UniProtKB/TrEMBL annotation:
Its EC number is 6.3.4.3. Pathway: One-carbon metabolism; tetrahydrofolate interconversion. Keywords: ATP-binding, Ligase, Nucleotide-binding, One-carbon metabolism. Gene3D superfamilies: alpha/beta hydrolase, P-loop containing nucleotide triphosphate hydrolases. It comes from Chloropicon primus. The keyword Nucleotide-binding applies. It comes from the Eukaryota. One of its GO terms (molecular function) is ATP binding. It is an enzyme of class 6 (ligase). Residues 239-307 form the AB hydrolase-1 domain. This is formate--tetrahydrofolate ligase. GO terms for biological process: tetrahydrofolate interconversion.
Length: 446
């Protein structure tokens, strides 16, 4: 059942009551389609972060509607004016114009995937479209992480619009819902509603400052004791408390880099909260701390460097020349990494993590009797360890040794070209498929 998207123009979504009526009418086995207007950057964001939060409803799949003509406009095509004939660019094949406009579609796909929702692109075909133009859109959509692209020919072929019965839904949409499972397993909010001032002893109801003042507030927050707040033993209790406050059910956890360490802490200390665990590149904490060799010590040299006072100036000088040459010499998206690195808030996050979790303390704990006792209990949560060939800093043998500390462990090795975990939220397709399969099998047994 489809609900209109503009009952409230302020946020471009139908009302919660409208969705409740639709859900009641379709019953337990039905599907409700509700529109989030103004694109994935406005209406959809408000749908997820506001409407879903207050209704407790969570989407299983998102459908982005696109057309060749619209993407040509986004790619720099001539202005379209009501009452005037369309320019030739919109009526004839122009591959480069479509390809240029696909950057807009790819951004929308990325925005939606940030919420953990599978994306299906519905390409509304016009009679003037060419197969080559549609192929460009399909390729760009899949590259951006779409689950599938489906061509709708109702306009081009003149078919009348009609209401679909459940058994007539596109098979790939059903597959998207089935593969990713319940929305509660994957859907995430991009921010949490917290009373910031109350948590700091201020007046209730006052939030953090906005605009430039907010950036200054964030910098101060991260610099003033930020490293202590990012100590591993302090982070995972906060996450468990957040899970409790949100009322999340038993769930899956996937961790990489800093998040990989925190994910290990979660499944070690709160195994009953999680169905399964995927560790990308980051090995079990006990392995990382105790299985030392010269290579691992040398590979982690930059973590010592990150604790130094002049590190910001060093990393950002001359368009991040030092960082490019010595820290990320093989990174596939060096420009994007450096663009983020110049953000002082992002830089402080990296510095404070390494200051809050100094390697010397980890190595000292490994040599102090009883300090790591909790880690010797085998992880009860089913775990898949993933490592990519040619990882610059993390060792394959460490990930393999992690299996010795898990009751149920599966190891997967990917080629470096297949597994490139970058600054983007979109996960490489091969990795996403492997993880999805692992999580789906653990849904039944866990």
């Amino acid at each position: 059942m489809c609900m209109p998207g503009f009952a409230n123009i302020a946020h471009g979504n139908s009302s919660i009551v409208a969705d409740q009526i639709a859900l009641k009418l379709v019953g337990d086995g039905g599907y409700v389609i509700t529109e989030a207007g103004f694109g994935a950057d406005i209406g959809f964001e408000k749908f997820c972060n506001i409407k879903c939060r207050y209704s407790s409803y969570k989407p299983d799949c998102a459908v982005i509607v696109a057309t060749v003509r619209a993407l040509k406009m986004h790619g720099g095509g001539p202005e379209v004016v009501a009452g005037r004939p369309l320019a030739d660019e919109y009526l004839n094949e122009d591959i480069e114009l479509v390809r240029s406009g696909c950057s807009n579609l790819m951004r929308h796909i990325g925005n939606i995937k940030k919420f953990g929702i599978p994306v299906v692109v519905a390409l509304n075909a016009f009679a003037s479209d060419t197969q080559a133009e549609q192929d460009v859109i399909k390729s760009a959509s899949m590259e951006a992480g779409a689950f599938s692209v489906q061509v709708s020919n109702h306009h081009a072929l003149g078919r009348p619009q009609r209401v679909l019965q459940q058994h007539e839904l596109p098979p790939l949409l059903i597959r998207a819902l089935d593969l990713h499972g319940s929305a509660s397993l994957s859907f995430v909010y991009l921010y949490q509603v917290v009373d910031v001032r109350e948590s700091r002893g201020g007046a209730r109801g006052e939030g953090p400052p906005r605009g430039r003042a907010r950036h200054a507030w964030l910098r101060q927050d991260l610099q003033a004791g930020g490293s202590e707040a990012l100590r591993g033993e302090k982070i995972f209790p906060d996450i468990l408390e957040l899970i409790s406050k949100l009322g999340l059910p038993k769930c899956h956890v996937v961790g990489h880099d800093w998040g990989g360490y925190v994910a290990w802490e979660l499944v070690i200390n709160a195994p009953d909260q999680f169905k399964s665990h995927v560790a990308i590149s980051m090995s079990h904490p006990l392995v990382f701390s105790t299985s030392l060799n010269l290579q691992s010590l040398r590979d982690n040299w930059y973590m010592y460097l990150n604790t130094q006072d002049d590190i910001v100036d060093l990393y950002t000088k001359d368009d991040c020349a030092f960082y490019r040459e010595f820290i990320i010499p093989t990174h596939p998206e060096a420009d994007e990494v450096c663009a983020r690195l110049k953000d002082p808030v992002a830089m402080n996050g990296m510095r404070n993590w390494d200051r809050g979790n100094p390697l010397a303390s980890l190595y000292l704990a490994a040599r102090t009797p009883g300090a790591l006792t909790p880690y010797y209990t085998k992880v009860a949560v089913p775990t898949m360890g993933v490592w990519s060939a040619g990882d610059t800093y993390l060792l394959e043998e460490h990930m393999q040794q992690s299996g010795e500390h898990c009751a149920d462990f599966e190891y997967r090795r990917f080629s470096r070209s297949t597994l490139q975990v970058t600054t983007r939220v979109t996960m490489p397709p091969a990795l996403e498929q492997r993880i999805s399969l692992f999580l789906r099998t653990r849904r039944v047994t866990a």
